[in-house]
């Protein structure tokens, strides 16, 4: 069953066209990746789905609700983690979640949400001194206050150290197990390969290809592609994690 | 309703946790008030004597002429109309009245003063007697009389406290809103709020409620400090004073919060907003009668500054605090403030953007 349907979506700005008529569907319960270089139109597409921008033309709907006609209705059933956002600096994490819980008119168990993202011990500290990984996890906690059907994660691991990134992957997999549909944008192909059931590759405002990572790779290999890189038993990241351990580094 | 309340209560929590905001809204105006109030800045002026000449004959003219020779006295002969008010506000230190038939049937000159200005009245008496001895006749008398007022003149500090209260309402009203909205915008806090199922109105009204409460606390604290430390007497407990102070400080707060909103909306980006806010508040600081009476400005300037948003707030708070003037008499100030509120509200709501 499709929970997200996008048809011929176009977004024009004054001088350039960010999204040039894209179509895709997302199935309930899957992690759907949007991949593409900077400026490809990923964030614009996501922000239209989140009700933050109006599409110039085309249709986008989530769980049968048309985003352009009822953005408030859509906002109620989705969770949003934005790429560049921040929270109130002089509120504790508990107070931030509490506030958003009221803004979404829900009555969520704040402690269990904080526990889910591993921030229960930090419930009384402010947002500002958190590490990058903790900030991202708070952002996800806020996105979970309304128990959303669809969760949007816009580059959730950008700027995180390898330990925090792996921790984030685990968190995302756990959220998926709760039956939530996740839209993930990322620059890290490794991340998409591990997490995503299907990915759409976007370039210059158009979707170049949609399929599962596995199918895309075998398709490329079948076309006679040979990697230039010699096969390595381990990567530098493996060395790094072997030397520094996999546990999170934050205080 | 719950949404407004959570935004308002969170804003207040953050306000009291941020030490620099407390500094600007309370510490700074208090220091300014106490400093200027105690040192009596603005009180060193030539003693001013108003003269009402009811005789208008050669004797009276000669006497006035002799008085005018005295360089240390400033003479004002256009005082007739509201000399009592001028006495109370110390715009004129004493008023000397020359009776009809002066020099023939009536030789008694009267000098009126306000209670706290008695020393100057005595010195005017001495000077007058000395000058009159040189006139042809010798049986002139000069009597000094205290003009009784319902209130007493409270000197410069009485003038200053309501001015500083109004100034503080403007500063923290405008700057509080501008800096909060700019910070929220540049940090992406507003964007995250936009992603929640709320309207901009929820955020703005929640902000306004909390800021209004903060400004009210600030106003009360500043007046209390004025009463306790500077020993000013707010309209001798006149009930009108308190009602007016309440009405005008709340309306003034709403006005400057809306102006803050309009500034943050009308600025093309955050780099412009702070200078823009200063550009608007700075001239009013000196042109709206906060530190000195606007009547000291040339008429053509004071005719314009009368309509600045801060002027009616300064004047209404000062009138209420010093004389307990009733609300009806402050109607022109009320109308000016309401007109500005509508302008600022219109601009603020039209220009507000989440991003």
In short:
The complex is a heterodimer of chains A (251) and B (355). Chain A is of the alpha/beta class.
Q: Give me the strand/helix succession of chain A.
A: EEEHEEHEHHHEHEHEEHH
Strand count of chain A: 10
The average pLDDT of chain A is 91
Shape by Cα distribution of chain A: globular
Low-confidence stretches of chain B: none
Could you list the spans of chain A in which at least 5 consecutive residues all have pLDDT below 50? none
The percent range for helix content of chain A is: 25-40%
Rg of chain A: 19 Å
**Main interface by residue count:** A-B, 26 and 21 residues
Q: Helical proportion of chain B?
A: 55-70%
**Helix segment tally of chain A:** 9
SSE-based structural type of chain A: alpha/beta
Q: What portion of the residues of chain A fall into strands of 2 or more residues?
A: 15-25%
The main β sheet of chain A shows up as:
6 strands, mixed
* Mean of all residue-level pLDDT scores of chain B: 84
Q: How would you spell out the order of helices and strands of chain B?
A: HHEHEHEEHEHHHHHHHH
Enumerate the strands of the largest sheet of chain A in spatial order, edge to edge or round the barrel. Answer: 6-7-8-3-9-10
The major beta sheet of chain B can be summarized as: 5 strands, mixed
Quaternary class = heterodimer
**Major sheet: arrangement of strands of chain B:** 2-1-3-4-5
Q: What is the straight-line distance between the termini of chain A?
A: 43 Å
Structure description:
The complex is a heterodimer of chains A (251) and B (355). Chain A has 251 residues and is of the alpha/beta class. Helices cover 35% and strands 25% of the residues of chain A. Chain A contains nine helices and ten strands. In chain A, strand 1 and strand 2 form a beta hairpin. The longest helix of chain A has 16 residues. Chain A is globular and about 55 Å long. Chain B has 355 residues and is α/β, with parallel strands linked by helices. Helix content of chain B is 64%, strand content 8%. Chain B is built from 13 helices and five strands. In chain B, strands 2-1-3-4-5 form a five-stranded mixed beta sheet. In chain B, helix 3 links the parallel strand 1 and strand 2.
């Amino acid at each position: 069953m499709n929970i997200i349907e996008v048809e011929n979506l176009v977004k024009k700005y004054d001088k350039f066209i960010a999204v040039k008529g894209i179509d895709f569907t997302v199935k309930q319960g899957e992690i759907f990746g949007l991949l593409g270089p900077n400026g490809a139109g990923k964030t614009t597409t996501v922000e239209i789905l989140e009700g933050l921008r109006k599409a110039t033309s085309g249709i986008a709907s989530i769980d049968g609700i048309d985003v352009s006609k009822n953005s408030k209705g859509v906002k109620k059933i989705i969770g949003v983690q934005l790429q560049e956002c921040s929270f109130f600096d002089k509120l504790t994490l508990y107070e931030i979640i509490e506030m958003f819980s009221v803004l979404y008119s829900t009555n969520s168990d704040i402690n269990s949400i904080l526990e889910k993202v591993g921030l229960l011990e930090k419930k009384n500290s402010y947002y500002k001194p958190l590490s990058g990984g903790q900030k991202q996890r708070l952002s996800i906690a806020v996105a979970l206050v309304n128990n959303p059907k669809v969760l949007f994660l816009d580059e959730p691991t950008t700027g995180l150290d390898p330990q925090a990134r792996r921790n984030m992957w685990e968190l995302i997999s756990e959220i998926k197990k709760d039956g939530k549909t996740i839209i993930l944008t990322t620059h890290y192909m490794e991340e998409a390969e591990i997490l995503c059931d299907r990915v759409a590759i976007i370039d210059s405002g158009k979707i170049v290809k949609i399929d599962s990572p596995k199918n895309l790779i075998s398709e490329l290999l079948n076309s006679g592609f040979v990697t230039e890189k010699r096969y390595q038993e381990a990567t530098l990241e493996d060395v790094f994690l072997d030397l520094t351990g996999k546990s999170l580094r934050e205080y | 309703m719950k949404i407004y309340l959570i935004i308002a209560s969170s804003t207040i929590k953050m306000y009291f946790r941020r030490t620099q905001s407390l500094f600007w809204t309370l510490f700074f105006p208090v220091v300014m008030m106490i400093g200027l109030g105690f040192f009596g800045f603005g009180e060193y002026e030539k003693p001013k004597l108003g003269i009402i000449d009811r005789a208008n004959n050669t004797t009276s003219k000669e006497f006035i002429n002799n008085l005018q020779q005295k360089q240390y006295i400033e003479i004002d002969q256009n005082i007739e109309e509201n000399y009592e008010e001028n006495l109370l506000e110390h715009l004129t230190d004493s008023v000397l009245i020359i009776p009809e038939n002066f020099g023939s049937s009536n030789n008694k000159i009267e000098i009126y003063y306000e209670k706290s200005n008695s020393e100057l009245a005595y010195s005017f008496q001495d000077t007058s007697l000395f000058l009159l001895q040189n006139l042809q006749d010798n049986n002139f008398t000069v009597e000094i009389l205290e003009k009784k007022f319902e209130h007493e003149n409270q000197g410069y500090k009485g003038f200053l406290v309501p001015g500083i209260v109004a100034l503080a309402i403007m500063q923290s009203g405008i700057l509080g809103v501008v800096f909060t909205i700019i910070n929220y915008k540049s940090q992406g806090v507003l964007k995250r709020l936009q992603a929640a199922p709320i309207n901009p109105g929820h955020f703005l009204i929640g902000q306004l409620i909390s800021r209004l409460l903060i400004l009210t606390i600030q106003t009360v604290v500043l007046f209390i400090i004025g009463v306790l430390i500077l020993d000013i007497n707010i309209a001798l407990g006149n009930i009108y004073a308190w009602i007016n102070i309440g009405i005008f400080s709340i309306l003034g707060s709403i006005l400057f919060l809306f102006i803050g909103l309009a500034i943050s909306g009308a600025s093309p980006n955050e780099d412009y907003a702070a200078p823009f806010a200063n550009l608007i508040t700075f001239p009013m600081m000196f042109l709206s009668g906060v530190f000195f009476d606007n009547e000291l400005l040339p008429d053509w300037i004071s005719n314009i500054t009368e309509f600045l948003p801060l002027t009616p707030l300064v004047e209404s708070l000062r009138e209420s605090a010093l004389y307990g003037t009733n609300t009806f008499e402050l109607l022109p100030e009320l109308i000016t403030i309401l007109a500005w509120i509508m302008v600022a509200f219109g601009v603020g709501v039209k220009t507000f953007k989440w991003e």
